[in-house]
Every structure is written in C-alpha cells, then in structure tokens.
Amino acid sequence: MRGGEETVAALTAQAYDAALSPGGWQELAVSLERAFGGPIALCRHSDRPLGIYASTLDPATASDYLEHYWRLDHGPKRLARAQPAEVVLGANLRKASPPGWSEYLNDYLRPIGCDEILYASPFRAADEFVVLSVSR
Question: 65, 98, 122, 129: which has the highest count of C-beta atoms within 10 A?
C-alpha cells in the first residue's frame, strides 16, 4: 500500500464519511485504488453478490463478475466465515487450490492485468457483509 499511517487514517475517515454520502462509496473506491495500486470493488454479499456499491473496474468486467465469476471466487466464501476486518490473501487461496480458482485466475483476473488479489470485509450485518477486493 502506498503511504503509511496517515493514508490509513485518511481512508478510514473517508469510509465513515461514505456511509453518510450517496457518492461517497465511489470516491472511496478511487482513493483505495490510488493507495493500493489496482482495481477496487466494494460488493454487498450474502451467499452470492447482491450488488456492487462502488468499483474502479470497467462496467463489462464488473458485469462478468456478477453474472459468472463470483461462483469461482473463493475470497467472499472465506470472508463469510471470517471475523469482521479479517484479510484474506488470494495467494493463500491459490495454495489451497479450491475448485474453479484456476479458471477465476486465468479467465477473469489475468485478462484485466491482475495476478494478486486481497479481500477484506469491513462491514457485516446479520446475514450480509461487504467485500472489499483489491486486484493488482
């Protein structure tokens, strides 16, 4: 991540502000992309994606994810069982080699120039959670 403690504090403050402003989520996604150096998606999940709040992915890539690739993405499945704010590294998923992971990596991530992915769930409600994914 580019920056240090000040960047983390600014992004945290921006996330709190985003909850109060309709356009705040997209602004946060752009700031996160700058800090992490790769496309960002904030996606609402339960047992499947319920929608993307904000993203720096191009619309076709986001649509492909919602229509097909979410089934192969094991990051949100791990986050469903994780504690809030836990981080899941795509490299750890690759080592475990869950079913469909190689298709997700080769057919979805690599064509958009990504070979690393990081997941976190900053917000959680009863049966829904927000997935923040960073690809680079």
Answer: 65
